[in-house]
């Protein structure tokens, strides 16, 4: 039956072949095509990673698999290739490369040379959206790079232009060096995105990651509007996005947290991105799993650091040490948790490191079958090409790898890589193994010769026979031709003796030599001993001890995520911030994440009892103005209004400053955009739940806030010597920005209200969704609140006038160091104040600041808070509050409210936090002393009933960090001593954000 099926298949192929006529000229090679059958017999064949055939036959013709099996009947006149003892794998697929695509030309940029508006016509308004780019248009087959891929086992690559936020389409290329006609499998198969700006553009926006995310949202909204609009000015970028909608969508996230962010964008717009990761996914595995995304994962494991210098080693970040230790387990962890992924060579310094790193991953538990799937069937499936590539099933492309055995055995030799039925030789299958010990005679000179190393890369060691002097030598073996150079100076300085021979007998090699004086002689090598591996070479790499993951996976991370507890504090001094004020010798019961009871002699009911006698229990500190734990830019300075961006997109849950916040008693912070523009971005209210992911840190159902700014920063007074060019450049211009944008927002809001009430009935075109104006309309509609960076009284009055003009109230003036001058006006307007305790004279516009500012505004009836605006100061806000007592004669009870209840009121969350009251969130801090004292230390910080900081546990964490560092440093020393590559230690300087921090 099998024979008949094969015969029928051959007849069908003949019919189709005879009907096809070529009409393209061919100037690269001869026209005649080889339509003969090629059969490989007696091989171990992996048809797929899970379908393995022993002593099987593979038949190919015209670049396709014709038959595969253990009982294939071969057509007549075929001379089969006997591959007994050999293994055939499907060639690998790397779906994420820039192969053959010219790298984008970098334009030199400086702050003074930035462009704020696009100069392109007919394209999208932002030059970093380059969806109109097609990789195939500039594709040029790179034979040299193809050779590297082929030698690594790859037969198919996806390629794209890796430049810009929307990068355009990618192509699928077969690494068929012999035929240009068939190597392009698909002109357009993928559509690519990233968080990286184009290097070809000077356009400033976006300058931050939150700006990039806002741009992507606006792009997709514009695409939807463009599709539905009947009045259309052609936009080539949006047209390309439309054409590419059904392609495979790939997003280069490049980091575990960025993968979560890209996934969020995809979910918003119903796009199933394939996420290109970075290798650190294991550090946020639960969140990665929840994305339900498929991934492309690189295996560019970091090299060990050279820690031989103790001082340099001490500068290494614990997180970097730990990542080096754990990185080889990433693929195993992802596999064990059901995350589907393909592998890529992307980010490797050298392609030849691919197999080394893959074998290391397997050594650390990555399943071999899953590894093969990640290189064959998975990328084929992700690309929608399962019927064509990735397997050796009948009808598939004849892309396969012939090896000497198990690919995952480091001794296995890769012989040939066939692509579309064309052979590429990696190492000769018929090479003779010449390794061993020889006596070597060159003319009249006698030597001892040892050939060792790998069979396909042998090395030479030569000594004079009479005195054992070691001579330099270089050996090369190719296609059974041997060439050997011996370096030995004669009396007149000639150095090279050159030997060559064709290998026929591995035990006796005879050839010709050119001696030092240029004369020709015969040389002969006679084997006297077989090759034996050096014990060091034969020694298997030991599995190093892998440290467990912590949450987050940095210093002070939790071994396990803490859980909610029932806790009873006994006999504490309780600062309630309520009408009861401070209660002595009082119990507080925390249960189900809430404050359950306050009183004397409360029953424990199975709760964890904390003896708080002599200690103080307060509500958690709330920092109304903070910039910690923000990723990749606190300012979106690319436009003078960036209301479309939001800090909620870029919470960095792995910032050690979070731990420092809870160690200082801070439980809630208001993370604000910087002050680079008059209208900044939307803010985020977070609870510092140390160890959880970014989304879980966000305050639930939080009110909407946005950052505005006045003064020097927004008019670019402090942007350096380069000529700033962005409007506004004066304080007068700042006012015009506000009035212009609010007028536009008002008109925008009116258009939408008209459409929602009448337009839908009349089937009119919906207005364009503008995230920026939509946000500003929320302010006018009293759905979003302003926190405004401010200093000078005239500007404070100006913004209140603008607010009155558009019938809204400025919620909070932050900094407001001249607030005491206009306290009556602020009170009348209904704004609050979040200020510094005693900062002044650090720049010109704060010359009139005084430490009595806060108390004066407080006494005028303004809700006053003290904030940090600084990662370090936020750890000591309790001491900042004490300064209100010193400078203003404020009572301790009222001063404490400056950093607890009052900021809660400013943030409209005082119904849940800010005081100790039954029913409120159990966000409390236990202090060793009066919290306003410089001697007070935080002993416990609890958020919603979960202990996120415990001073007693901190001691054990410090000891564990020291122990881990020592273990990893010793492991790295072992790496260096074994001859493996190392990298120079580098101290990381962490950029701490402030209002005026700018990044290009």
Describe the structure.
This protein is of the alpha/beta class and 1000 residues long. The chain is built from 24 helices and 43 strands. Strands 1, 2, 3, 4, 5, 15, 16 and 17 form an eight-stranded mixed β-sheet that branches. It has an eight-stranded mixed β-sheet with strand order 6-7-8-9-10-11-12-14. An eight-stranded antiparallel barrel has the order 18-19-20-21-22-23-24-25. The radius of gyration is 35 Å and the shape is globular. The model is unreliable at 1-21 (pLDDT under 50).
Which percent band covers the strand fraction? 25-35%
Q: Summarize the main sheet.
A: 8 strands, mixed
Question: Which parts are unreliable, with pLDDT below 50 for 5 consecutive residues or more?
Answer: 1-21
Using only C-alpha atoms, the radius of gyration works out to 35 Å
How many distinct beta strands? 43
Query: What structural class should be given to the helix and strand makeup?
Result: alpha/beta
- Share in helix: 25-40%
Discrete helix count: 24
Q: What is the terminal-to-terminal distance?
A: 70 Å
Mean pLDDT across the residues is: 92
- So what's the overall shape? globular
